[in-house]
Each structure stands twice: as structure tokens, then as C-alpha cells.
Amino acid sequence: MEHGSYKDQSASTFSLAEDHTLANALRFTLNQDPRVSVCGYSIPHPSEARVNIRVQTTGDPAKEVLKDSCQDLMMICQHVRSTFDQAVADFKNNNGSESG
Amino acid sequence: MPKVPLWDLPELPQNQLPLHLQLQKTRVSCNNDAPTNTENVTYSGAYAALGIDNSLRLDEFRNNFKVKVIKLNEEDMEFDLIGIDASIANAFRRILISELPTMAIEKVLVANSSSVVQDEVLAHRLGLIPIKVDPRLFDYMSENDVPNEKNSIVFKLHVKCERKSGERLTVYSHDLEWLPSGSEYVLPTENSSESKPKTYTSFTSSQVSLPEFENNPITVTPGIIISKLAPGQEIELEAHAVKGVGKTHAKWSPVATAWYRMLPEVVLLQDIEDDDAQKLVNKCPVNVFDIEDMGKGVKRATVARPRACTLCRECIREPGWEEKVALRRVKDHFIFTIESTGALPPEVLFTEAVKILEDKCESVITELS
Questions:
Q1: B62, B69, B340, B367: best mutation site toward chain A, by most A Cβ within 10 Å?
Q2: Has the ipTM of the complex gone over 0.85?
Q3: Residue A34's closest chain B neighbor by CA?
Q4: Which of B70, B109, B147, B351 could form a disulfide with B238 if both were Cys (CB 3.0 to 4.6 A apart)?
Q5: Could you report the per-residue pLDDT of A10-28, keeping only the tens digit for each?
């Protein structure tokens, strides 16, 4: 759910049904994007699983910047997964050949 | 850091930060009273005045990111993630603990219990027993669903402590028997004219016929004490297990626990020799320091095992030592430890956790489009 202005698309607040797990990671990738001037998140009430992510950009629509950051986070995750699988396979090969 | 005049600062290549800023950006300084520099400098324009770009470039991340596996067996693993930010490492830890699904006993049908353990306490204990089955083979069961072979596992427990034995009998978790054909307790119905009576579950086929379970019966972790019975006491019950996540109840968490710490870095700011060196080696409870013989009777202290440092700060506790030894943590090097309860091996757990974070991002993208 996006709370913003129709006239100025560069600043809005996104209210998502998430928690710190995704919101902190998204805040990190958003901050690293050069188009972002301000970004942060808050949890309105701890009993309700809702997080408000505030994005203010230097001109680009905030929705697009948030979507791009989600894509970046997905690429990071995919790279982590492939590197991890490779490292586990290497470890098993090295230790399998030593003990076997 | 000692104050150095501007013209004495070392020359660095164009796109590198000055050394004191690099230290601030990449290391947590663990001082005697409290750690400083704990915040991560994530803003892309943080060093814009110096002309240095702090933004995330995926190709740079791909080149610098490394994973090193230190220990790996069926129960636990220890590995290093190098070059990643704390928020993402924490996201993985949170998902490992609370959002990876497992199977755990949820409903207990007690037919007979004359033990001193109350029914609800017994049911609570049964729920906490880890079930060694891959949860990906099962579906979630919602409230309207009928329990069938795709969403539940049925166990039976029938133990009796014989009167003539005279001793207490301990009921262990391996006394639970798996019933692949479903529940054996008949639902109370009015007309008993049906050929096959309806039970509490509706298994259309036996779970043993599925290829995954043919030679691989579903077991629970053995050796866990459920209850103790005195002579003459008996427990007869059926336990139904369903799929859930740790967020709902901790019994569905697939890890005993999962944690990470940042790599400690111990730096000797001055040369520490002879008596001081011996004092330093004696102070450290985990033997981080070693004595090196320099020849001519001069002994110097070196940092041999910084990874073992537990940051107890014994080496900097006494006055004057803080200028000699610097304790730091590397902000983007995480030593992860995952201890699995047995349902899935730890490397599979981590891969699933990363997949779940990807799925979350995807659902946000579809919600916004």
C-alpha cells in the first residue's frame, strides 16, 4: 500500500505486511541506491505485523526505486545461495577425499 | 588513532578513503567501557564530499563476496560469510529461527492416561519432540482441511508399566510408533452399518506407498524422556503432526538455534616485549597471544589466534594497556553457526532460508506492480 502524493511521485511511504527481517534488508539496499536521498522504516505497533518504509528520491518515482531495490536484494540472495552451494560442495569434496 | 598532520598522511590511490575513515567504516572498536563505531555507513552519498562513491555495485559485491565452510556434519555447521552487510545476515538468522517450516505434533488424542503427568503437559512435551522428516514433502493444513496423508503424520504411543516389574518405567520418544495408514481411532457415528468405519484422519492411501518413505520410515529423535510410569500406570494415545513455522510456536523451529558473530581482530599497536609479553599471554583465557623468540634474548608477543577471541577484554582491562592492544571487530565478516534439530541438514536449511528471503522480495514486487 503506497501513501504518497499524486503530484510528486518522488516521496512516499509504503505500508507492508512485513517485519524487521525484510524491512532492514530493504532499507540497506535502498540506502545504497544513489537515487535515494532519504530512506528508513518504522514499525507502528509491535503486536501488528506492519512496517512503514519511507522512501524519498532525487526525482525518480519512489515506487520504481523500491522495486529496483527489491530486485537488487534478490540478486544478492541468488549470489549468496550459489556461492554457498559451491563452498559446501568444495568442502564435501575436500573432506570426502581425505577421509575416504 | 594518534593525531597526524595533514601533510604527513600516507598517499593512497584515488578511490580509497583515508585510513582513519576506512577504520571507522569497516571496524567496530571494542574499547574497555563500550564498543564504538557500531553503525554501518550505508548511505550512497556518505563520502560524496571526498569524491568517493559508497553505493552498492552488484558486480563489486559479486567479486568480493566469499563463503568459507569451517565445519559441516549432519547436525551442525559453522561457516563464514565475508563481504555482506549485517542487515542481510540478520535477516537470514531470523528466517532460520522463525520462518522455515517443519513438522511437529499438534493434536494429541488421549485414549487412556493413568500417569501422573497431566494430559496437557504430556501433549506439550510431545509437541516439542523433533520429527525427522523433510517438511517439503507435506502441505500446510488449514482449519477447513481434512487431515489426510498429504498434510499430517500420525504416531501412536502405547506403554504400560507392568505391576510385577516393581520398577518405574521411563517412556522415551522412540516408543512413538509411526502409523503410515492414518488414525486407528474410530469417529463416534450413529450408524455402524458402514463397511469401513471413519477414523479421525482420512488417509486415501498409506504413506508407506510414497517413494520417499518406502525404505525410510518416519522417526523422531530417540532418547528423549517423555514421562515416567509407576507399576500399573498406562498411557495410550495418538499424536497427529502437522506443518508449521517457528513464528506460530517454537516447536516448529528447525534449528536448535542459529547465531552469528563478527570476526574479532586483535592488533598490537606497539611492540610488546619480555615481561609485558609474558603478562599478555598469561592474561588471555583463550590463548590468543603467543610469544615469539626474536633472538638475542628478546621475546615479542604476537597475535596467533584472533578468531578464538571472545572479547572478554582482559587484555585491556588494566590501565595503560588500551594504548598497546586494540580489539576490533570486522563489520562485514560473519561467523555463522547453525545447529539443526534433525529434520533437514544445516546446509539445506540455509539454502531454504535464502530462498524464503527471495520469495519475500518477489511478493513485495508483485504487490507494488
A1: B69
A2: yes
A3: B44
A4: B109
A5: 999 999 999 999 999 999 9
